[in-house]
Design a protein that fits this description.
heterotrimer, A mainly alpha, B mainly alpha, C alpha/beta, B: mainly alpha, ABC transporter involved in vitamin B12 uptake, BtuC, two-stranded antiparallel sheet, 12 helices, 4 strands, C: alpha/beta, Rossmann fold, seven-stranded mixed β-sheet, globular
């Protein structure tokens, strides 16, 4: 049975994915690549959103999953001359395995304790990347473009430096992640996750194994963040430890809150708005952080549920 | 691959374990680690004190806490540079000006933003990240990006037979202990302290009993910021004032407060010691970065075993 | 699918061909320029692009300046920007580049590799600059370089990292204005070993920058018959260093330090507290104290120790007239601080690289006959054919050897001794002291 709401959700998200696809024919070169970047980073934020927005677990160590994907893919290309496809899959595997193991320990805690445990593991991962610098090349990082062979499909070569290849690869990753997170949000699993967020004790009393659900959410979240990290490494050709630093754990939180936590489209909106806020204001003034900071304050005062959260509350209550 | 093997070859000296036998003998080394750990612990407790209050009473994450600390440090530099002469004078001035100014900023932030979003935890995070950017940019624009050294008001070098140590660091530790005692006294013996404890335990009941909860919140937020500023002033002579210096104290304060258990002053102090001493001791046995990794994981393990912190109650 | 990126390029090319043939009056060229701006849809590029295309051969050479205005590199960025402005003013005062005025288009990268790549994109695609130059921090350079290579825009870094010369970047990346760190280390190593001691303990940040010191200096030590007591990589999250000093072996003759970031002063102070008057010889890279007044209270401990400098911070009677003119043009006093504020100390051993890089660009443009973006191959090949830059207003730090295969220049280095809170040069290396076996050749890559 497909309800009216489900149909609306499917149509809307397909339309968004379609719109993003069409935008590549319309956008000027600069914004074309920007949108590719935004889609990859929004994928990272979508992974974050599954854990934070839906399940209510706030993490400050998500950069480790992004970095796991980034290094998982990047190191394979750099040292083992993997192709992009295999490297991408390995990146996802790296993200999901880290999340699976980490979750067994960290999910014993909740609330702010979970926040701190994620933060400290994240920091430990960052320092580990520096410690094994003979392999990871430390904070300086490495470029993968020299080692990445062009993809040959049906006799046609796709070079990753080609903006169209970049855009469409980023679009595919984004579309995949959006579909997964929408499917989860609209499914019974998603409802259990939301129940965990609202009241974990009560959910457990109803007979759900909340630990398993939280662990599942963390794994999916880690896989999507890993996919984003792998895509970033392959498409933008750089792997470096700065992406594992605490700042890159704060970013997805910020993007998600800005766009609307617990909304499927919030991460995209938040990432896009933040990207252009910095891009535009840094062109006008050296003191652009004033404007960024001020905008965040304004957002909190007038759109406390985030941009998409406000849209949902005012106009479209059916949004997942 | 060539790159890697070259780096490996060049790195063969870089052993996993330190070799204390070659160097300062083990006893003094351990003593230094203990001394350093204790001082670190007091510095941590001092830095975390303000956050502990805010977090404990208001249950909000103030991401700008580190920026209040940084403002204190930068103002200390400004005051001493402005007055010149003996560093004591500028330092004394900074101890008055910095908390007042920072407290005023915090009050304004509370009144303009936090109160209006009803101290919603998520909104508060975004709002205080906004505040963080604004404060950082303010300091960058007004004072510049340089790391500014501040001369200690009282400086002497304590000479042990094996090594020397900064006398001012010991003074900071003592002052930190005093401030902790003062805060404990204020919490347990004053009316404001009573209000704060009541608000912390149950917001609604406290309100029903006539506690002006909103004013308690504003006061606590400002007090927390002022304590952070005082910590910044006191600590800056052993570090430097720099517009990006706020992030590390913020993270450390968080860790201390949560390991200690929410709202427990005693817990905050104990946690500071657990972290300070373990950080110091682990560094005796392992190379610096590995020591940092292990100390970090060790502290995380405390939380995994005791999810509510060392002295936390069962509410999270 | 037609790539929108290429439209403006071809258009731009057409416009210039037309203006060169003088077939069109500037009024028509203006319209064409406006059309280009419209096509690109740039929200900021519009008016700029219009003015650019409107002036025929007087059209300015636009140079994108990727600058660390915020983030950890902001101290360097501030002085890089001052130097860049001074260099552009000077070049414009002597007739510009190939008779065309220079216009610097600055953009902050927040000292972040992610933003760095985005800034390269913005400067190249939206602002349509002719070249990009300026980044210092290695991770930003390595994060940004691939995009510059993909966009095929010459990218001049002023980083002193070994990344360009290692052959790991691409054909569009050059470092023609500052010696790389490997050559710096190699060139000073024998003086340190012969004059300070052969048993060395090294303190360095657990950063790539530190690894270059670790690897290349310890290699030289071993080659020259010395020994390494301990290699201490300090994690970047550290703010107190006291606990690491007991690691220094008692028989250490030379302590080698190179720390970066805001914690460096603490490091030096705590080192002083630890040793007191009974210290080994100490040699450091000025990076530990760039932008910091040597006469700062607490640094008295450094008295009698030695530091590497690329360009002596303190003016001396032996300064060349070019060196004096450079100091004056950038607005630095005899103590290496801003003329407006004696507390505002320059990053003097790095920022001159910005000045010299701009002059290398000038030389390459003029010798290759570069007019617009389609002339990049000629420009790059010209650059790669350079072998030597003469000392002069364009190269106030001194003459430089340039190795086209590595895209890297090599200059002399200095060792200075701290005396009375100032730095006095005690040794100057020759360029050949720093040369090493090349590990790559960019010229084999396609353009």
């Amino acid at each position: 049975m497909i309800s009216g709401r489900t149909r609306r959700i499917v149509v809307l998200h397909l339309a968004i994915i379609g719109l993003l696809f069409v935008l590549q024919f319309v956008l000027p070169a600069y914004h074309h690549t920007n949108l590719a970047r935004i889609m990859v980073l929004a994928t990272f934020a979508m992974g974050y959103n599954i854990l934070f927005g839906y399940t209510g677990l706030m993490s400050l160590g998500h950069a480790m999953f992004f970095a796991a994907g980034m290094y998982g893919a990047g190191l394979c290309v750099y040292y083992l001359q993997f192709g992009a496809g295999a490297a991408f899959v390995l990146g996802i595997l790296a993200g999901v395995s880290l999340a699976a193991v980490f979750g067994l320990f960290a999910l014993r805690t909740t609330g702010v304790s979970f926040l701190i445990v994620t933060m400290m593991f994240g920091q430990a991962c960052y320092l580990t990347l520096l410690y094994f610098n003979e392999i990871t090349l430390g904070d300086q990082g490495f470029t993968v473009s020299g080692n990445l062979q062009a993809l040959h499909q049906a006799g046609v070569g796709f070079a990753y430096s080609d903006p169209d290849v970049k855009f469409n690869a980023a679009w595919l990753v984004f579309a995949g992640a959006l579909s997964i997170s929408t499917a989860i949000a609209a499914s019974p699993i998603g409802r259990v996750l939301i129940a965990v967020r609202v009241n974990e004790e009560r959910t457990r009393l109803l007979g759900y194994n909340t630990f398993a659900y939280k662990w599942l959410a963390l794994c999916v979240s880690g896989a999507i963040a890993g996919a984003a990290g792998a895509a970033y490494a392959l498409l933008f050709s750089y792997v470096g430890a700065s992406f594992a630093s605490i700042l890159y754990s704060i970013y997805p939180l910020l993007w998600t809150l800005l766009g609307g936590a617990g909304t499927t489209l919030g991460p995209l909106v938040g990432t896009g708005v933040m990207f252009y806020l910095i891009d535009l204001t840094s062109g006008w003034t050296a003191a652009y952080l004033f404007i960024v900071g001020g905008s965040l304050l304004a957002l909190v005062l007038w759109f406390p549920q985030g941009l998409m959260g406000a849209v949902r509350a005012r106009w479209a209550r059916w949004l997942p | 691959m060539r790159e890697v093997s070259r780096r490996r070859r060049l790195r063969q000296h870089h052993s996993l374990y330190a070799r204390p036998a070659n160097e300062m003998s083990f006893g003094p080394h351990l003593f230094l680690a203990f001394l350093e750990g204790t001082v670190t612990a007091f510095v941590l407790a001092l830095t975390a004190l303000g956050l502990s209050l805010v977090f404990g009473v208001m249950r909000i994450v103030n991401v700008a806490h580190g920026e209040f600390f940084m403002l204190g440090a930068v103002l200390a530099w400004y005051c001493t540079a402005l007055l010149g002469g003996s560093p004591m004078v500028g330092f004394a001035l900074a101890l008055i000006v910095a908390p007042l100014l920072v407290g005023a900023i915090a009050l304004a932030a509370d009144w303009l933003v936090l109160k209006r979003v009803d101290y919603n935890p998520e909104s508060t995070i975004v709002a205080t990240i906004g505040l963080l950017y604004i404060v950082q940019q303010l300091v960058l624009t007004v004072f510049g990006p340089e790391a500014r050294p501040v001369e200690a008001p009282i400086y002497f070098r304590v000479s042990f037979p094996w090594f020397g140590y900064s006398g001012y660091k010991l003074i900071v530790a003592a002052l930190s202990a005093l401030l902790l005692l003062g805060t404990w006294y204020a919490l347990s013996h004053t009316k404001l302290g009573l209000y704060m404890r009541a608000t912390q335990q149950d917001y609604e009941i406290a309100q029903a009993f006539g506690v002006p909860v909103r004013r308690v919140y504003a006061t606590v937020f400002a007090l927390g910021a002022m304590l952070a500023a005082v910590a910044g002033v006191l600590i800056v002579p052993v570090q430097q004032a720099h517009y990006l210096m706020g992030l590390d104290p913020l993270l450390l304060s968080f860790i201390v407060v949560i390991i200690g258990g929410l709202g427990s002053l005693k817990g905050t102090v104990v946690a500071a010691f657990v972290i300070g001493i373990s950080d110091g001791m682990v560094s005796v046995f392992f190379s610096p970065t590995l020591a940092k990794i292990l100390a970090t994981l060790l502290v995380a393990a405390v939380l995994v075993v005791r999810p509510n912190g060392l002295f936390g109650d069962n509410r999270t | 699918m037609k790539k929108s990126e290429q439209k403006p390029n071809t258009k731009t090319g057409d416009t210039f061909k037309l203006t060169r043939r003088r077939a069109l009056k500037s009024g028509i060229a203006l319209t064409a320029g406006g059309g280009v701006a419209g096509l690109t849809g740039g929200y900021l590029a519009g008016p700029l692009a219009g003015s650019v295309h409107g002036q025929g051969s007087d059209r300015p050479i636009r140079i994108g300046f990727q600058v660390h205005r915020t983030g950890i590199g902001a101290v360097y960025g501030r002085w890089y920007e001052r130097t860049s402005t001074a260099a552009a003013n000077y070049i414009n005062s002597i007739g510009g580049i190939a008779g065309r005025p220079v216009e610097i288009v600055p953009e902050d990268d927040g000292t972040d590799p992610k933003r760095g790549a985005e800034v390269v994109e913005k400067l190249a695609v939206q602002h349509k600059v002719d070249f990009i130059y300026g980044p210092l921090f290695s991770h930003v350079v390595i994060g940004s370089a691939p995009r510059a290579g993909e966009l095929k825009i010459p990218y001049f870094v002023v980083s002193e990292g070994y990344h360009v010369a290692s052959g790991k970047l691409n054909r569009y990346v050059f470092q023609p204005g500052i010696t790389d760190v490997r050559a710096q280390i190699t060139s000073i190593s024998s003086w340190v070993m012969n004059n300070l001691g052969k048993k060395v303990t090294m303190f360095f940040p657990d950063y790539a920058f530190g690894y270059d010191h670790r690897d290349y200096f310890s290699a030289e030590v071993k080659k020259q018959g010395g020994s390494i007591g301990e290699l201490l990589a300090i994690p970047p999250t550290e703010s107190s260093y006291t606990r690491y000093f007991p690691r220094i072996p008692a028989d250490t003759e030379v302590l080698y330090h190179v720390m970066v970031g805001p914690g460096v002063l603490t490091f030096v102070k705590e080192m002083g507290e630890h040793f007191g008057s009974n210290r080994p010889q100490i040699f450091g890279f000025i990076d530990s104290l760039e932008g910091v007044d040597i006469a700062t209270p607490g640094l008295d401990f450094l008295e009698g120790t030695h530091l590497w400098e690329a360009f002596p911070r303190y003016a001396s009677s032996s300064d060349t007239r070019y060196s004096k003119a450079f100091r004056d043009a950038v607005g630095v006093d005899a103590n290496g601080a801003s003329k407006d504020d004696p507390k505002d100390v320059a990053t003097y051993s790095h920022m001159w690289g910005v000045w010299e890089t701009l002059f290398v660009i000038k030389e390459a443009v003029e010798q290759s006959g570069y007019r617009s973006r389609q002339d990049y191959p000629a420009l790059i090949e010209t650059l790669e054919s350079f072998e030597w830059f003469n000392e002069g207003m364009g190269h106030p730090q001194g003459g430089k050897k340039f190795v086209g295969a590595l895209h890297q220049c090599y200059g002399k280095q200095h060792i200075s001794r701290v005396a009375n809170g100032k730095l006095n040069v005690v040794h100057t290396t020759s360029i050949d002291d720093g040369m090493y076996e090349p590990e790559g050749d960019y010229r084999t890559q396609s353009l």
